[in-house]
Specification:
42 residues, mainly alpha, 3 helices, Mor transcription activator domain-containing protein, Homeodomain-like_sf, Mor_transcription_activator
């Protein structure tokens, strides 16, 4: 599943629970650190 820009980031912020950065990274083809950065913005 590939979402772009804001849609992807909003979905990551909604799903992120502090322990699933690696799982979300795999789903959205991002590093776990990038997922954490996106979640921190929200």
């Amino acid at each position: 599943m590939r979402l772009c820009g804001m849609s992807r980031d909003m979905e990551i912020m909604r799903r992120y629970n502090g322990a699933n950065a690696s799982q979300l990274g795999r789903k959205y083809d991002l590093s776990a650190n990038h997922v954490r950065r996106i979640a921190k913005r929200g």
